[in-house]
Design brief:
about 350 residues, alpha+beta, Herpes Virus-1, 5-stranded mixed sheet, 4-stranded antiparallel sheet, 20 strands, about 20% helix, elongated
Length: about 350
Amino acid sequence: MTETQTPTEKNFTSSEVLQTKCGKCGLVCSVAPVSEESGVFYCGRCRPKETPNLRFEEAAKKLVFPCALGCGIQTVWGETLQHEVCCAYRKIVCPYINCNNSITLQGLRDHVNKCHYKFYLEALMCQKIDTLGTMHRLHFIEFGIFSILFFVKLERKDDIINFHYNVCLIWPQHYEQTELDKFDLRLVIEIPYLTVTSLIDNNKILDYDDRSHCVNCLYQNCDKYQHKNEFNLTNNIPLDVKGIFQKNISYTFVVYKKDTFSRTFPNSLKCPSCHAYMMDEIYFCNNGHSFCGKCMRKQSLNRKCRICGGDFLNVRNCSMERLIKRINVPCQKELFGCRFFGLVADLLVHEKSCKF
């Protein structure tokens, strides 16, 4: 740079850009805005609101940057920070309260199992939280190829307890949406005389960012490096506890792998005319559809199949009759947490009183 040039007038070579490191974090200046102060450059990771050095950024836009964390992936200008947030090699500070251990993103699971094992939550494991004591929780949950953090915060206002929660996906953050769509996530909350089951929409699952998603930030007493010291949980389930004196709330995080067969099969055992489960005698229409004996015997019935319009036949479906007496099927509320699995006759009785 000549004496007449200002910092923004200097032209940068490719090698100069790739070798310029931030004066604060020491990483390559591959995140905008890249600013300069007294000859020292700072990246957008550390100074996200500074005035950019336009000449530097013009040169940087033409380059491909190797991951500064060492994973081997290369990114173009403008995509580096997005990659670093979910890079397996990125060092993060543990999200649990008062824990300042530095680990890699993919090493968080082992750290939780070693240091915070009581918060490692397997699906279907019931948890209790004391509404008169600690009002915050953080659980580490694994299902399939996924690892998530489940944040909980209770707030009581008069007779209403607001059950706030967030679900943050730790690993992997680069995945096919169809992989996550194979699972149904449910939150089941129980207090005396009330059970609430809520679907956790996959679209509401956030990518985990340790600088925003931590318990200390939830308490707003966080001094961890680059953390925001604020964290608002975006999901809420209000619970009316008027007249309830029990101080504990029980909740269960339920994960189901979707099974199209188990979900739809019970419906195939229902009569298409009256929609009741087919028991005892089962008959055919002339196109092969099955219907129950009660509908066959109803004199007022328009004797036409509701599926195809075909005529009812006085011919028994003996194979279906034998099958229904032997096969076990799940409750249709399986995805809401019901674990019933039994014969159709028992299922008919169970579904009248199923709490789900």
